[in-house]
C-alpha cells in the first residue's frame, strides 16, 4: 500500500472488495475475491488451484485493455498485485510471462511471494533489479549507499526484498556512513540451521537425531517454514560433505520437497527434484517428515564414512 500511495496519492486507499467470476474452457465457474481501487487490483490466483492460468490471463488482459479512470492520476498505468506468486502453477507463470511482455505499457505487476525459488527464471529476469530499489530507499532515507555494498546486500538477500531492506537497516546501525568495512550478518535462524548441519556431519546416532529434532521444533515454533528449514540445512550440508554423496542428499531432499531449490544444481539434479513427490504436504506433522529426512542423511553419511559406500541406485 505504501508503494501505491507513493505512485497515486491518497486516492488509492479508497478500496472496494468484490468477487469476480472467471469461466474455464470447460465452462466451469471460478469465484475469486479481489481488492481494488481506481488505480489497482489485488488478488490471489492460486486460490483456484490448477485453474490459476485462466484467472491470470483474463484479469491481466482486462486491466491492460482499460484506460485509467482518473485523468489527473500521477501515473497512466494500473497496477496488478498478485499474492502468493510462488504458489502459481508453471502454466500460470508462463501465461504471466507472455502477458507481461505484451501489455507492459498499460500496467505494472507486483508479485508477492515467500520465496523466489519457485518462480520461473524468465519472470525473475523481468522484475525490477533489487539494487535499484535499495538505492531508492537509501535516497529517501538520506543514506549514501556505495554500489559495492548494495551488490553485497542483494547477494545476501537471495531475491528477498524484505530481507534486503532489513539488512540495509542493520548495516546502517553498524556503520552510519556506510563506508567502513562492514560484515553482513546472517539472520539468527539461518546461523542456527548451519549449526544443525554441523551436528549432522559430526555424529550420526539416535541421540544426535533426538537433539536435532528438538532444534527443528524450535525453528518451527518461531514460524520458520519447514521447507525453508529443509532447504537451508541442505544448502549448508552440501558444503560440508564429500562430492560423492551430494547427489544422494539432493535426491532425498527432493523426496520431501517437490519444487526446485534456489541453490545451484546441475540440470540432471534439477530435473530430479522437479519430478519428486511433495512429502511434507501429505501430513499435518511436518516434524515427522523433517526427522525422517535427517535420519536418512545420517544413514548416508555414516555408511560412506565407515565403508565408503555410495548407493548409485537411489
Structure write-up:
By secondary structure, the chain is an alpha/beta fold. The protein has 3 domains: 2-127, Rossmann fold (3-Layer(aba) Sandwich); 131-174; 188-307, Zinc Finger, Delta Prime, domain 3, CATH 1.20.272.10. The chain has helices at 2-8, 52-64, 90-103, 121-126, 130-140, 147-157, 161-174, 188-202, 206-221, 226-238, 246-256, 267-274, 286-307, and strands at 16-23, 29-36, 40-43, 78-82, 107-111. The protein has a 5-stranded mixed β-sheet with strand order 1-2-3-4-5, covered by helices on one side. The chain is globular and about 75 Å long. The protein starts with a helix and ends in a 7-residue tail after the last helix. Residues 259-283 have low confidence and may be disordered.
Characteristics:
Rossmann fold, alpha/beta, 3 domains, 13 helices, 5-stranded mixed β-sheet, Zinc Finger, Delta Prime, domain 3, 314 residues
Q: Outline of this structure?
A:
With 314 residues, the protein is an alpha/beta fold.
- How large a portion of the residues is in β-strands, by DSSP E? 5-15%
The CATH superfamily of the largest domain is identified as P-loop containing nucleotide triphosphate hydrolases
Assign a percent range to the helix content: 40-55%
Radius of gyration: 23 Å
**SS-based structural class?**
alpha/beta
CATH topology of the largest domain: Rossmann fold
Q: Give the spatial strand order of the biggest sheet.
A: 1-2-3-4-5
Series of secondary-structure elements, N-terminal to C-terminal: HEEEHEHEHHHHHHHHHH
In the CATH hierarchy, what is the architecture of the largest domain at level 2?
Answer: 3-Layer(aba) Sandwich
CATH class of the largest domain: Alpha Beta
* Count of strand segments: 5
Distance between the termini: 49 Å
Name the poorly predicted regions: 259-283
- Count of helical regions: 13
Q: Give the count of structural domains.
A: 3
User: Mean pLDDT, nearest integer?
Assistant: 80
